[in-house]
Design goal:
The complex is a heterodimer of chains A (368) and B (77).
Chain A (H helix, E strand, L loop, with lengths): L2 H11 L7 E5 L2 H9 L2 H4 L4 E5 L4 H4 L2 H11 L4 E6 L17 H6 L3 E5 L2 H10 L4 E8 L1 H13 L5 E7 L3 H9 L7 E5 H7 L6 H6 L3 E4 L3 H17 L4 E3 L11 H10 E8 L3 E10 L8 H4 L4 H7 L9 H5 L23 H4 L4 H7 L11
Parallel strand pairs in A: 1-2, 1-7, 3-4, 3-5, 5-6, 7-8, 8-9
Antiparallel strand pairs in A: 10-11
Chain B lengths: L4 E9 L2 E6 L2 E6 L13 E5 L2 E6 L1 H16 L5
Antiparallel strand pairs in B: 1-2, 1-4, 2-3, 4-5
The chains are: A alpha/beta (368), B alpha+beta (77).
Chain lengths: 368, 77
């Protein structure tokens, strides 16, 4: 650990904390740094770090995964998606492929991509095929998708959009009877796009301390120190510990492009349900780019599937920070990174996958 | 998916920029930075192939140091 981080940690340890303080993060990147740098063990006993809704892959609704698999099996379709999406399982009859990876193994043309630019390039390189971009992600990923659309895409490219906004899920938790946390560390790159101001509602409406953090241990520790001090002083504000990148107002071009091509709509979160104003949809005038319309997917068939997690899988409560990964009955038993049952064990941003990679094996071995 | 990597702009052609980190070069879109002047030598935070914010050299270096070799070697992460 670097000197700056050590010094911040010393300042945290010197705080006169008495009761338990639960700090939630809503970003897979934050959770990865926390787990890999061992920050839980480094913090005082009564500080609890909770991984909240920070994994877009984990909350991507089952009906969207199902639609993506169905589209990939069409003879003239090439389906492209961020790599994490390929292994996300859907509930299907035994004879059918349960993930895009399984569809690929059965002969479908499914390709992992690392950038929306690749989706457009693949479509340009294969004009005889229909290329469907299955685009799941939070604002940080939705902005590049909006940029790709605004820049102009080839006519054989369509988008199966599963974009989500981060703050409405936190607002939903805070509006519930038991939010389950006392302070929030807000996501750095979502704030870089949308502006840190989006998180003001946390202190202003709910009286909870909040701080925007970057992805390095020292930025996260600065944010922990900020919210703990606010907590002690009963003075909740929105602090910004990632000013280098999360600038006031965010990224004006990104916000304009998102507003130009996308509408904000109510959206389903897998295992959690519909959250008002939490999703993105293509503007009506861009419906020619909508894979759901181009391929006349039946929305009624999708609705039947709404909210389903795999049987026995507790991912929904893990995503909401209600339970820790190792409190799921399947964790490390039926569900491992090699044979994942739920999306939280699939995605590099899933709390289960991250904690497993960091060595969390069972309840007895773990300091929460 | 929200992890970004700071990169240095080597060359710019319209909205395309050749960017470098740790000896690895990638073509990065500047389409999301239309409100900024971006020139060779500048540093940008790159996420899924798009520069999402301009940052100072000192900030980029600090992030490289903190992210360590593992992240720097995987600019697509």
């Amino acid at each position: 650990m670097l000197e700056a981080a050590k010094e911040t940690l010393a300042r945290i340890r010197a705080l006169p904390l008495t009761g338990r303080v639960r700090i939630m993060n809503v970003c897979g990147g934050h959770e990865r740094t926390i787990s890999m740098a061992g920050l839980r063990a480094a913090l005082p006993e009564n500080v609890e770090l909770i991984a909240g809704p920070g994994c877009p892959v984990c909350v991507c609704p089952e009906e969207d995964v199902h639609d993506a698999i169905a589209l990939s099996r069409l003879a003239n379709v090439t389906l492209v998606a961020f790599g994490d999406m390929l292994r996300v399982p859907a509930n299907v009859p035994k004879a059918e492929p349960r993930s895009l990876e399984a569809a690929k193994a059965a002969g479908a043309d499914v390709r992992p991509i690392a950038s929306p630019r690749e989706a457009a390039a693949i479509a340009r390189a294969s004009p005889a095929r229909e290329v469907v971009f299955f685009a799941a992600g939070f604002e940080t990923t939705t902005a590049p998708v909006a940029a790709m659309i605004a820049e102009g895409v080839p006519s054989n490219l369509s988008v199966l959009l599963s974009g989500r906004k981060t703050w409405p899920a936190v607002a939903m938790l805070l509006d519930s009877e038991q939010p389950g946390f006392d302070a929030l560390v807000a996501p750095g790159h979502v704030s870089a796009i949308m502006g840190p101001e989006e998180w003001r509602f946390v202190p202003e409406r709910h009286g909870l301390p909040a701080a925007v953090a970057g992805f390095e241990a020292d930025s996260l520790l600065e944010a922990f120190h900020s919210v703990l001090r606010q907590h002690l002083e009963h003075r909740a504000i929105l602090d910004n510990c990632y000013t280098a990148v999360a600038k006031p107002g965010g990224n004006p071009t990104a916000r304009r492009l998102i507003a130009d091509v996308l509408d904000v709509v109510d959206a389903n979160w897998r295992g959690i349900g519909v959250i008002a104003g939490s999703g993105f949809a293509l503007k009506p005038e861009l419906e020619r780019l909508d894979a759901r319309r181009r391929f006349a997917l039946d929305p009624a068939a999708g609705r039947k599937r709404v909210g389903q997690m795999p049987p026995g899988c507790d991912c929904a409560r893990v995503v909401l920070g209600k339970i820790k990964p190792n409190e799921c009955a399947l964790y490390g038993k039926a569900c491992t990174p090699r044979n994942p049952v739920g999306p939280c064990m699939v995605s590099d941003e899933g709390a289960c996958r991250i904690r497993w990679a960091a060595g969390l094996r069972d309840g007895a071995a773990a300091k929460s | 998916m929200c992890l970004g990597v700071p990169m240095r702009v080597v060359e710019r052609d319209g909205f395309n920029a050749r960017c470098e980190v740790n000896g690895i070069e990638r073509t990065v879109s500047l389409f999301l930075l239309q409100h900024e002047d971006v020139a060779p030598g500048d540093h940008v935070m790159v996420h899924v192939g798009y520069a999402i914010q301009k940052m100072s050299e000192a900030q980029a270096k600090a992030t490289w140091d903190l992210l360590g070799e593992a992240f720097a070697a995987e600019p697509d992460a």
